[in-house]
Amino acid sequence: MDERYDEKGNLKESFIDKRTGIEYNLVGDYYLPNLVLEAEEKVILNKYGLLRLNYLKEHKKADYIIMFMNKTLNKHLKEVQETAKTRVDILIKKFAKQDNIDEELKAKNQLEWVQMMNNCKNRAEEIVFSEIIYI
Fold it and tell me: Taking CA 100 as the corner, what is the angle to CA 99 and CA 105, rounded to the nearest 5 degrees?
């Protein structure tokens, strides 16, 4: 007897196909497969994660599709954005020290301090873009 029927010949509410291992549920007169996607970790992307995602979509389509299908895209984007943020912070501190940007300058001339810190940030981000984001 077919696995979809019980002993009395009535349709079962659900059954598991022996060939595929997929569970089917009776909906009206039809059996529909009970397919559920695995939940992925939700990642809130910052500037660097979004830039990497956009780069993958536009320039590395095969890599993007493979990571998306293997469910490794979110993990990859999370790692990239954490690495990029850490690297930018380290480089900003390094450049600020090299250029003698300190609290004394901040107290004396805030506008110059902001200008120099923005310069440090821009240099750091350019390095991170070429080393981490756009590869």
Answer: 120
